[in-house]
Amino acid sequence: MLKALLLLLIGGPLYYIQDPLGKGIEPLLKNRDIKIIKQVDQHTWLVEGELEKLNTGIYRIARYFKPKGKVKHPSIKTLDIEWDPFIDSVLSTISIDSLKAFIQRLQNFKTRYAYTDSCRAAEEWLKIKLSHYVDSSKLWGFNHNDTWMQNVIGYKTGQQQQFVMITSHLDAITYEDPYNFAPGADDNASGTAVVLEAARILKDIETDLSIRFVPFTAEELGLIGSEHYADHIYTNSEPLVATLNFDMVAYQTPDGHDFEIYGDSTGLAFNIMKQVAELYTPTNNIFIPEYTWGSDHAPFALYGYDWTFVIESNYHLNPNYHKPTDLLSTLNDTLLLNAAKIGIGTLLYITLCPYPPENFAAYNVGTGDSLMVKWNKHPWESVTYYTLYMGISPNYYTDTLNTADTLIFIGNLLEDSTYYMRVRANTPSHKGMLSKEISITLHSKPVSPSLITISPSRNAIQIAWRKNTELDLIGYNIYRKSELNSNFIKINDDVLTDTVYIDSPLVDPYWFSYYVTALDSAMNESEPSCTLSARPVTLSNGVGIVDEFRAGNGNPFSPSESMQKAFLDTVFSWIEHDIYNIDSTNITLSQLGIHPIILVWADDYTENLANDYIDEIKKYLSCGGRVIFSGWKPSQNFLRSSYNTNINDTILGLPVDSIYLSTTLDFQGATPYGTYPSLPLDEDKLPPNFNGTLLNIEGYKTNEDNIFYLFDSSTDDPFWESIPCGLVNHDSTIFYFGFPLYYIETDSVKSLLSYIIENTVNRKEKNYLTPGKQKVDFVVKGKKLFYNIDNPQPRLNLKIELYNVLGQRVLQKSSQRPKGIIKLEKYKCGIYFAIIKLNNTTHRKKIILID
After folding, report:
1. The pLDDT value given to residue 784
2. Nearest to residue 354, comparing CAs of 433, 289, 296, 428?
């Protein structure tokens, strides 16, 4: 049985191999022309080579399938089904003798290997057998490797065109002599017997949804039959509701469990099947709400259709797996019977009982004693009415209402009480499945809004919250305070009707806190929401350092955190800098955004921690910031890339084709490619046996002119000598070093960082980092601002701005005079912020206006 995906590419087919025991795949690949491409996860490898006829033993292999698109199935995370006497009576008619007879007949074909005439005969027999139970059946053929193969499809017509499939695979394989003997009783005559028994049991039962009974062929060759049919279903927009797939369901393994049941946790089928198994069988199952390659459900799952997959627990413990000994005599009657109950019971619930209406919700009218309830009209034409259940305790309902409407108002309720509700859709013959329980508390004033996010951007902060559901809601108010004051102030003039607010302009690097209230038509204001805080992106304050230090013991090649901090304080002694330790600080754009340039100092060679903050770095770059990356194996850390391979950097967008890693002691420094300073190693920081060199240094292959440092090889290695080891992107916003700067001579690093900042940040916006040479004094007396400029230059370009505590600019003046007075009588008393921009420098001061 095949258990993964296969991809055909130029150069040979690619397969996934999954090892259920976690012991590695080397035994499978020994002495074979198969190449490991990469390890996907702990149990899965991607390999290149021909595996279709290889004896894979217990390993799970399968061909990759790339869907042409994706559909969206109803997302029903929670629903309840109830024990149903009619369904119970139907399940009691399932016959173990019938199931075993189906398996024996399939086993009698001797082999059902997909390339054999015997498999064609089995396909023909299944078509005829299904025709006894369904409205019509047919062989659905396709060509594979010059062999005509056929899925079998039985059609049962319901009241709706929408249909459910119950599926299996009819083919079998052994690795000793598959052309002559592949009985496949468990794998997978057992699953096919469940499909046939479902058709037999439902023969005279009218269903709302249509059903297709589908044994696929060529599953053992790589899910070939199901891939073709999934393409057909999607391409022709056929209304498939769900696929219930059964594969190996009759061998009782000794692990203490019965079945592994896989499915989509948001899907209808998995939720129903889980409850059917618990209500109608005594089985001990493992429910796994996640995708698996597994079997013929996989192509449909990849297309987005709802699905489940049932297989005996730890199938690899079946000693007869893919062997001639896989015979009916080895199977367990009770397990087989329960598999049929689970499959047929799930099929009955899905096709007879309407699933819950979608978008079931309750709303406060705003009077304190009334509410509105609504849901979507059910898509089944056979649904004639709905039942609403309501009470004041969870899962206990004292009131029931039957209605054909999908929107109702309910009055005469108790204010400040919580009401619990469920709804179901019904047909004349069957009650539907109960929805998840919802609740609502009635109030005469709005509930507090729920803040979702606060997001800094360039000179602005965006706040977003969830929309309140009160029917009499008219909008929201938003309140703010900065770190300079202790009181919140409402900052919107008009009531906000949106749930997103952008506070702008915010020119100073202060923390701002916000909360939101809701307002109804009677002008009742809710209690405040929670408070969220952020700093705008100002790109105004020195250098920010993301500290991913490795705390060593202080010996050579193992610097302590204090030693690295001292190094940074030295190389940045000429400029203001802030260090953000990722162990104690949540690295966010609010921290980074006040700095025009960031140094990411990833000198922990034991851990890759960039996943914790790389997305914030990307946001920072999008706001106009600049980043210097330095550390051990930076591409493994920042780009999540492996070595000696081509890469597709979708994280930082560096123009890199390939990344290599020097794993020998050979790097003795970096040679500048252009006007940057040389970067020799500081041998005092290295162990004596390193001979003044380092290992684990990255080199890059690039076809663009973005190189600014080259690898200096101590041995003049022909590959490594002068390979790029430092990159800068085209707009000089990213400086990327393939080595840790700590081990470079201190003065060289200081010169390098000074050169980068002076030629990028300072050149772009001089006022960010360089102090002004002219002294500017300004004071406030009463409501007059006096300014004076010492040592004025011949030509002055002076701008004076005044901002209130809301961040609103209330005054802007220009002047060429070195001193003057600005009258502020028309402004209210309070706190303001004066900003004087003089040529290329900026001066800020908090002022207080008083009468």
Report:
1. 79
2. 433
